[in-house]
Please model this.
Amino acid sequence: MTTVKTEVKEVGLYINGEYVPSSDGETFEVTNPANQELIARVSEATEEDVDRACRAARDAFENGPWRKMPIEERAAKLRKMADIILERKEEIARNDAMDVGKPYEATLNGEVARAAHNIRFFADFAEKQGAEAYPMGEEYINYTRYEPVGVAALITPWNVPFMLTTWKLGPCLAAGNTAVIKPAENTPLSVSLLGEIAKEAGIPDGVVNVVQGKGSVVGNALTTHPEVDLVSFTGSTATAKHIMESGASTLKKVSFELGGKAANIIFEDADLEKAIPGSIRAAFFNSGQVCLAGSRILVQRSILDEFLEKFKQAAQAMKVGDPQEKGTDMGPLVSEDHYKKVTSYFEVAKQEGAQLISGGKRPELPEKLSEGFYLEPTIYVHEDPKARICQEEIFGPVVTIIPFDTEEEALEIANDTQYGLNGVVWTENLKRAHRISHGVRAGTIWVNCWFVRDLRAPFGGFKKSGIGREGGEHSMAFFTEAKNICIALN
Ligand SMILES: NC(=O)C1=CN([C@@H]2O[C@H](COP(=O)(O)OP(=O)(O)OC[C@H]3O[C@@H](n4cnc5c(N)ncnc54)[C@H](O)[C@@H]3O)[C@@H](O)[C@H]2O)C=CC1
Ligand SMILES: O=C(O)/C=C/C=C(\O)C(=O)O
Model:
């Protein structure tokens, strides 16, 4: 299959159960990063449109049936939503392949399947969740209720648009809140479908709204809006700081899942048969545009040469190309701006004296992909963990290998970062695995694996990688207010 030539899609805002144009009729264009073809014109929300979406969500929350609906009924509608996502999985994956440039096959069977699971998981979780009771002898009893907070703004990034939005929408809706979603402006297509999917599942109008446009305008209008009670955000640390400031005057509750620069630590006793493919995935999955990417590979010096040779061979065997084509491992970067940001680090690496092992340039590709933002998987070695390429989130297919000698040194380098989202350890020594897992200051540590997700487990970052945790009861705690009721028994 070759890159699918589509007619240009017209995408509206989704407010109060219907697609609508923006109030001033303005649209913005979306292009395919695989070939720069125009793929969509999207209504660009004005502050007035954001206001309408927030008021619709408020009205659905206060006056609609959603928050008071018995949990069995609400959960059944969410399970229906999950079913519809699976029925429409080809369309959703095709949309992500078109505007993000994600390999279609992997998205279809990975992220879209996970998106349906996100919704179903929180429907089941909320249905089974109990609450506490605290008897005070025979005189009083306290019991707790978990009530929805209100209107949630769900602001999501371009790297995993559909899956990450459902990861927030599932618990948000299961708890009985209403939502205004804002996807990233360069990847609006798959998320634009969520309003109509919710409606088809029987979820009342106004419960799920989608507004489109720039973060500085539409995102800002949402995070300052008086009707928005809470903001769940995944994206850059810089934007999270803006959101915190802009939400301060209306005292919004916030949950932030932000950037990372994970250490992927390979000890001399690691099983390289697993560590090499695992590290390749951690480095180059989604073209390295993943907050969890293992972009600093710390390798024990005694196995450095062997690791480098095998890792280089595996990286060079990856198929970079058309994301719509079967067998593609790595598509393009998401946009020209992002391509410029990522490639600017090639100059930084040169100036910092890093040793280029592989990549660092565009691959040779067929003519039809000549306009796309492709890069070869790129590997550097650098001895200085303080170098910019070892410290800054490049968010592309670029990794730096940093040699170390001792366990203590590995830990010191791993923790020498402003981020703390995750870490990865490869060793066959169980005690060492525990020691390193305890020592690395990050929210998730994967031992002899990477990006294995259990939706019940806490997920989020230490340090500048976030505030709060998502997952199971942690998501439910964010999307609910706990209320204690104390009853006199006499
Ligand atoms: N999952 C992650 O951790 C992600 C990390 N990043 C990092 O951030 C860098 C920059 O990427 P961007 O697309 O600029 O990320 P970003 O943080 O600006 O964008 C994420 C979302 O926030 C929205 N947004 C932007 N400014 C806003 C504001 N003032 N108020 C409310 N919402 C706002 C955007 O429209 C988008 O929906 C990347 O190179 C990467 O290093 C980017 C995307 C995801
Ligand atoms: O698995 C999750 O819940 C979150 C994944 C997050 C990313 O892939 C990201 O933000 O890059």
Remarks:
- The longest strand covers residues 140-148.
- Residues 155-159, 182, 184-185, 215-216, 219-220, 223, 234-236, 239, 242-243, 258-259, 291, 341, 393, 395 surround NAI (ligand 1) (CB under 6 Å).
- The mean pLDDT is 97.
